Amino acid sequence: xxxxxxxxxxxxxxxxxxxxxxVSNLTVKYSAFMPARDLASSVYRxxxxxxxxxxxxxxxxxxxxxxxxxxxxxxxxxxxxxxxKSKLDVISEPSPHPRHAxxxxxxxxxxxxxxxxxxxxxxxxxxxKK
Length: 130
Known about the structure:
Layout: E1 10-15, E2 21-22, E3 27-28, E4 41-45, H1 51-62, E5 74-79, H2 80-85, E6 89-92, E7 100-104, H3 110-122, E8 125-128
Antiparallel strand pairs: 1-4, 1-5, 2-3, 4-7, 5-8, 6-7
């Protein structure tokens, strides 16, 4: 897989908490895109994948590897161009999986990160597990 992540690619942010989405209108909340302590958000490049492929990545490299035993409830899919419009970037990080990447460029200012996460959530599509 090419290390350059193009604007036209879709990435998936896996969601583990029902507090990160709204069932009422099937939308993603900004909290799903808030960065970890390292100021990055882990995502997976999903272009060319069908639902079975994405589920396999989740089982083998995401839910199946969590120390806390949590299983993903779904994911927030977003085009990379929307991430970059929010003044963030998607950088290929092929470990633990060749399709792994990180959303990077968050600030140390939580309010700024919240605003960026709101933009990302508005442009994402919620895909819940069946």
